[in-house]
Design brief:
mainly beta; four-stranded antiparallel β-sheet; six-stranded mixed β-sheet
Amino acid sequence: VRVNNNLKIQTEGWTGDYFETVPIQLKAVPEFGYEFSHWTGASNSTEAIISLSLENDTTITPHFTPATNYSALVINEINYKSALDFDPDDWIELYNPNSFSVDISNWIIKDNNNINSYYLPEGTSINPMGYLVIARDQMDFHAAFPLITNYIGDLSFGLSGNGDAVRLFNDEEVLQDEVIYEAVEPWPTCAAGNGPTLELIGPELDNMLAESWKCINTHGSPGAANTEAYAIDEIT
């Protein structure tokens, strides 16, 4: 729950003191895999955002239910260390497994350092069953992949060639997906400066597991499915 848009409460119970004459705003924010249902106590509203005017001690509880109509976006491919003779700079690919577009305006990409945060621009969305690449340097990426159009940037930080994290948060800073990769076995070492990228074998797999990743194409498959049918050499 967000209180007055500046305090985020994630504990089961919380108490605070507020002036009686000043209304407070509450916003129910579901964690990943859940959706907001309704409030009970001082309000029975089904609106996620409500305002309360306090006249005495007040209790209110938000209720959430498991989400049934939405699958999480997937961190589907990572280029963290390019080859010396083919360098599009770092890039990350997201996949939308849903049958509808997902608006990811103001979502956040982070590595293992919370200070490194890239906010996706307003108006950014991913098509149904579609892909989006976030490039560290758009000019370098376009020079390497001139036929790819579904990319944005510039990512405000780089990924470590020795192992790092890629984390995706929604606009409420709720974690949606994360990958903590390494440049040594059991992770595919072919992605550590040899040309290929870390490609998720299938978007339904657990991308936190090293065995879910493989070097499939010569220079990866940005903006497309991670299959060997992707003729990457034709567009370099």
